[in-house]
């Protein structure tokens, strides 16, 4: 503002211009050189007088405008100085912008009256944090800032044992508060000592997945707000190693890490100080072993022992399930541990020495513990109707409950991507062909809420953003793989849909454990084909009872006023006003969406192939239920809204023979007998032998090949397609 005023004063300065002034400047004020010259002609004198009078008039007007502008600039400066003299609430410069708030996950506030009721007191004990010999600062942080008034059963038993200094093996069901069971005593013991960042890491927590590591870090950060001198830190795959090295160089008192990145920094980062390490926590130990981190964890334990020497260190191993592999890891990492768990029924608590762990282990493998307020359901649906049944079920639950949050588990990353793109483009009823007016008035999304996706092929920034957004939202659907099945505390999840059956019962228990956490109600449903219904008897042997749901009840969510009047939208595949059922119209709509989008069609093909190959990887003990030969591949293609027969499932620009030749493993079918090629049952022998051979050549125990050993077949993994 001040610069413009100064320029205006210079331009409109009314002082007389020099004779040598530029003609362009003179012309700007309506002057000319001819008016400055004196002539002897009388007829020019009149013109000269006229021009001088015009010049004087313009100069007077310019002088008035200049004075007015100076007064306005002066008043503006006075107003600005007055505003600056007033104390402002927010101080901002011209170039500064308001910082975006950092997304945080705060523990859900639970009313004490609900906890003390018989229905809400099942997950919490009758004790208080103040009665557990915790300091006042920590108790105040838990009760007033984190809204936690009472500890859970596992916290009430594990915290005193860990405060005594003993190594602990903690086993409890999902959603019982195991994270705070080791964080609270860790902070309680470290706050009594003079902790400085220059001393390096005092506590190390290993978690199997990035999302679980981020969740532990956020809880730890909230707990340490009362202790500003203790610095939390996190290192995990997908982040910049340079930034992590800077944090390690400055010092992190309590560090949360994934095993692979932690081992990498222990070997390559000299500034990573663990010589004064006092705590080592292995969270979700069973998942650490399932994901293949056993070698990395053992290497980390050996490096810690070498650098810490004879220094006393307290160790803890936390797991929701206990098997022989977890027991072996406990023997390696723990020293004379106390086994802490919660019994069923009377809620009595017990401590079992390590020498009595074997008998408890055998009993717990047979009986899986699930949340008591969890309702389990089963839906029997054919292959060609699974896609419509999923869309109808999501629409049903979102419409009946405005604040529903749903998790949908699928077996592969390609499946998650395909369903995410398809549901984002689907409407019901699809009235776009009836004209823009009808579409604007009555058209609505099939799933009228935010849809999220989470799988291992996403970048770390996308995974973190998706996780935080779904945690903060009150309603939404998240399509995910088993990367979200272990340890994640996703707030207020109402339904867990297992669209693809898990590979074992332990994974089933972890999936349904994402709901009904900390005394809340929750539900889980399992989608099964008619040939897979025997899986229910396998679950019942583990005391997991599922109630059936009728498919017709799910399809009622697709009934609208249009369908009741038998005036459904005109569809390209029908060519007339159809009177077909709503589920048939929705299936045709899915097929049209996929056929019109080449990118989505190619994604559907990849999802189809990955599903077939993942289906062939079920363990041998479950092959009698989940076998490739039980699938009707034409119906499975309908599950991905594909109209092409499975024999034509090849990429564009590539012949069918070249496609199957590129996917077939080399030197694996030399011993295949000709009779085996034609010994297919049902409609598989006539319609899709080539694709079935691809799946069988990649399967575990589907067919016996002459030159392939049994060990290689059992260890074979579908790295090309499976998630």
From TrEMBL:
It catalyses: ATP + H2O = ADP + phosphate + H(+). Residues 127-156 form the DEAD-box RNA helicase Q domain. GO terms for molecular function: ATP binding; hydrolase activity; RNA binding; RNA helicase activity. Keywords: ATP-binding, Helicase, Hydrolase, Nucleotide-binding, RNA-binding. CDD domains: DEADc_DDX31 (cd17949), SF2_C_DEAD (cd18787). It comes from the Eukaryota. The keyword GTP-binding does not apply. It is an enzyme of class 3 (hydrolase). Residues 54-67 have a biased composition (Low complexity). Residues 373-559 form the Helicase C-terminal domain. Pfam families: CTE_SPB4, DEAD, Helicase_C. RNA helicase. Belongs to the DEAD box helicase family. This is ATP-dependent RNA helicase. It comes from Hirondellea gigas.
